[in-house]
């Protein structure tokens, strides 16, 4: 070696077991554990809304204004019904809380309908999303009376 040359240190690397970087998974881990899954609130809203509507005795969902707007939307050609009307959710990483507004049919026991809706919503959301449903709060906002759907054939006073 000459006086101008310096001896450079040699780094030795191990290739048999590389150290994983922080937050990274090993390549030999199963594919199902690599990555993160997030579920949007709208997904849970649709699942809960569909599950609630499946219960006999549920006539409609939502408060007065949302039902009125929904009825208009349903009658517009090409419009799709809003499955999530009357459903509000809070979704975390592993849990969800759900609020449902219902209109029940006249004569159907409200506590029974509420219990059945609660059980069906919890079952559907947990089965489909894997989230733990911590609560389903139900507000009965109206009762559908027989004959309420018939068109009003009375003549109006104004044109």
A few lines on this structure:
The chain is of the alpha+beta class and 159 residues long. It is 28% helix and 21% strand. It starts with 40 loop residues before the first helix and ends in a 15-residue tail after the last strand.
The number of helical runs is: 3
Compute the gyration radius: what is it?
A: 28 Å
- Percent helix, as a range, is 25-40%
Identify the overall geometry. elongated
Q: Which band does the percent of strand residues land in?
A: 15-25%
Instruction: Report how far apart the termini are.
Output: 108 Å
Secondary structure class reads: alpha+beta
Order of helices and strands: HEHEEHE
The total strand number stands at 4
Sheet with the most strands, sense and barrel status: 4 strands, mixed
Low-confidence stretches: 8-14
User: Could you tell me the mean pLDDT?
Assistant: 79
Q: How does this structure look, described?
A:
With 159 residues, this protein is α+β, with helices and mostly antiparallel strands. The protein contains three helices and four strands. The chain is elongated. The relative contact order is 0.16. Residues 8-14 have low confidence and may be disordered.
